[in-house]
Every structure is written in structure tokens, then in C-alpha cells.
């Protein structure tokens, strides 16, 4: 009886070893892909159209406290840095008075050329090569399935830091997400999730059972892109400005409001500007001179979100410059 038991154990042992050997190459292949896939680490920048850039400078530099730097191109654009690697860029619109104010959303990567090749293999229409900027950055642009412009940027140099006093004026040091109008969620998921590796961070709606907002987090960081769903096919200017937005992160919107009021900002009469979203995070919205919404949002939720749980790490202030 003992010999029979030993033989059975040996058979089980070698059968398990064989199963592991069969799976091992797949594990190695998955690990190799994870190591070789270019990282997408967060929001790099968002470019908006602005009718009056000097007027907008007062909003982004004087009120928000972000460092203004001339754009690296030949045009009259201006960048406002929240930290050494994240900024909002304002450029003149191609058609004065146009309703659509969003030009592009850009993500940071550690390997722009590798990412360009990856998207090419997946059938996306990509440029023949990356563009090397005057600042040493390497980038390329593609269109998402709905025609929106998306850029991937590999930044090689840091913007020189401003003075300590200028750094202290920043109301936020981290742009945690950008959102824009989306009509076909499945098509955008194929692009962001299936091809680029983004994952669902949270989703919910204004009413129970609805999905109006879908947050897709970058694969190698805490920032996300937000699908703004269920809008009309051709939204009016104000509704577009509300949907196409950015969200600077803050620790406390109560402290944010105090700092805003110290700089001369006043909330609408009889209305509390601090709002608790259905995602469980407190927020305070500002509107820039071109009616683009700047959704200041606390990094961490103060209550459990409705609709679905968070599936990724929460963002935090940036200490980088």
C-alpha cells in the first residue's frame, strides 16, 4: 500500500511540474511585454483655444498662480505650468468665436517612439516619426476614434523653476484629469483600454442607474481621462465648456476657497461653491475667460462613491519641479 501511494504522489508531482512548465513561457512573455510596453504616466498638458490670451493670463497666472512660459512653437501661445511637467497651453482659435475650445489632450510617456510603433501595429494611423521639439521633447499626435486630437509626449528637459514665492502661489500642483465629450464609449474603450492599457477607475451618473461620466486611469500613474457622455450631438458653447475641462487636484476645497477670496475672487451670491460629487470627492468649479471649466477636486474622497467603487490609487500633490 505504501509503494502505491508513493507512485501516485510522484505522478501528481510530475503532472504539476509539467503544467507549470507549460504555463511558464506565457508568464515570461507577459512579463516581457509589461517591461517593454512604453509607460503612460499621466496628463502632460491640455491645449485650449483662447480669444484673448493676455486676459486669460490674468486668470491662469494671477488667480491660479501657475507659472507662465512662452510656448516653444512659433505662434503666440502661452503655457501655464502647475509643476515641471504639467501645463495648460493657450493658443488662438483657428476661427474666432468658435464654440469648441479644446484643441488636444496630451499624455506623458517614457518612450514616444515605442508608443508610436505600438499604435501602428494595432492599426492606428500614426505619423512616420516622432517630432522633436526645441525643448528636446519627443512627441506624436493621433486622433481618437471620434476624431479628437491626442498627443503623447516624452519630456527630456525640465522647465526652470520659478522663485520660491512664485511656487507658493500655486493653488494646485497637480492636474489630475482632463475630460472631453464622448459619444461612443465602446469605440473610445477600444482605443484607451484595449490599445493603450488604461483601466476603468470609476463611473457613474447624475441619476441612479445612469452612466454619464467614465474615468479611465492611465496604466502607469494616477491621472485619468474622463468620458463626458450623453451630451447632444452638437452641444452649445457653454455646455461644451463645461464638458471639455481639466481638474487640478487640491487637498482641501475649503482652503482653496479661502485663498481664492484672498485674491479677490467671489462666489456667486447665495450659493455654496463647494460641491460634493457623486464620486465622493469635494470640488469647486471655476470658469476661465473662454468659458472652460476648471474643476478643482480634492485628491481623496470624503465618502464612499455612488455607482461603482474606485479601482485605482488616488492621486496626490506633486512635489516635483
TrEMBL record:
Annotated GO biological process: L-methylmalonyl-CoA metabolic process
Keywords: Dioxygenase, Metal-binding, Oxidoreductase, Signal
InterPro entries: Glyas_Bleomycin-R_OHBP_Dase, Glyas_Fos-R_dOase_dom, MMCE/EMCE_epimerase, VOC_core
SUPFAM superfamilies hit by this protein: Glyoxalase/Bleomycin resistance protein/Dihydroxybiphenyl dioxygenase (SSF54593)
Signal peptide segment: 1-34
UniProt cross-references to PANTHER family, sorted A to Z: METHYLMALONYL-COA EPIMERASE (PTHR43048), METHYLMALONYL-COA EPIMERASE, MITOCHONDRIAL (PTHR43048:SF3)
GO molecular function, one term: metal ion binding
Residue span, VOC domain: 42-155, 174-299
Domain of life the protein comes from: Bacteria
Keyword Metal-binding on entry: yes
Pfam family, one: Glyoxalase
The protein's name in its UniProt record: Glyoxalase/bleomycin resistance protein/dioxygenase
